[in-house]
Amino acid sequence: MLLDRDSFGVDRNSFGINEQRDLECGDSPPHFHTTVNIPSPQHPWRTRMVWTLLVVLILAATCELGFRGIRRALSDSRDFAVVYASVRTFDAGKNPYDTAPLETSWQEATHDQPDDSNPLDLALYPPTTYLLLSPLALMDWNHVRWAWLLINLIGVAVLIVTLTRYGPEKLSPWGAACVAAFILGFGPIHTAITKGQLAVVVTAILALAILAEARHAVVPAAILIGLAASLKPQIAAPVIVLYVLQRQWKAIAVVAGVISFLLCIAALRLSWAGVSWVGCLLRNVTLAAQPGGVYDPSPTNPLAFQLLNASPLLRRLTGNQAAIALLLAAVGILVGFFLWKRGQVRFSLLADPTAFAAACVLGLVLIAHRYYDAAVLVFVFVWALRTASAWKRTPELITIAGCLVMAFPVPALLISSGHSRAPAAISQTLWDVVVIQQHSWVLLIVLAALTTVLARRPNSEF
Prior knowledge:
Layout: H1 5-8, H2 17-25, H3 44-73, H4 78-91, H5 99-109, H6 127-132, H7 141-165, H8 173-185, H9 187-195, H10 199-214, H11 218-231, H12 233-245, H13 249-272, H14 278-289, H15 310-317, H16 321-343, H17 353-366, H18 377-386, H19 394-406, H20 410-416, H21 428-436, H22 438-454
């Protein structure tokens, strides 16, 4: 009897060559495992309904991307204006961290007609960022904002394709549809596109690095990690820790080589122009972190609600900074220990979805990040969704719920709509801790869920 796809749902070619020949010759084939999917003819209307809902969800997410991301990017992109002006200043051989030449470059790029007359924010990126983005200096502001928007949309497409079709583990069709809808409708991605931030581009580079590592292309993966770290170090740094924990010295050497090479070129460019930039960069970082600065985690900072890391939440609970530092160090050591143990039984932590997801969340918890940097949570959502029997496992369900909560900038919406004050029945302290800093809570809960998965025995995950 011949096997065919219609009767059993299995293609005859799915058998190995030797096993197929043995069957035809009448010999007993060796033991092997074959999964037979028998399509169920029952309730076909349910399948059609599910797919209809998924298509509607994808369309709604696409519309939200256009409304909250693309539309606002055409009138905002203030963060990208700082990066772009810094790139032009760097390309002209001037100090990109000095306010005066930065403003001059901005006026030249906008032909003395800037969209916003307010001063530019502090330049905080390393010179490697401006070196890699230096081709953008060839365009004026009206053209470069469209080019950067297109680059961000390409990054979104890269995320969808790599995470749904070419990930370390295959997604089911409905799972791929859910991931596509999540990426298209994810709030941090919208905010990153609106502000012209680098988060989407860096996240897409990390996705390509995972793809390369899963195919045992260690050097290309490390090069991509090095490029991501050169563009935005605070996002890529936790990923480099995975290399260190597993002592992958070859990959570490490649990453260090890429970063050092780019940094040397950037430093030489500024040195030849006679620019003293190190002190200015350190001054800008100090100003951003000091009381009242944009990265000040204390309650005195009116923009502290935009920070995702745990420090703003803990500063609302206690003013003891030493205790906060010890607590965060303990969290990092605990998660790092379980990642190290997992690295003893895994070929590569970078290609391990659980370890990579934990590293991403750990970075968001420990390092100062704004809402748009939570774009890396797409890796966490995909991991939770594709994990076997996810609907029966509490940590995975908690992670999915946490990612869905992070999809909406609720604190920003409350404050922008004039609801920063607590209702009469709730104390202001409780309101600030629980509602305004809710993203910090969510990330801590998701990190706890991921840590419980890391603590499992490897053979008990599936």
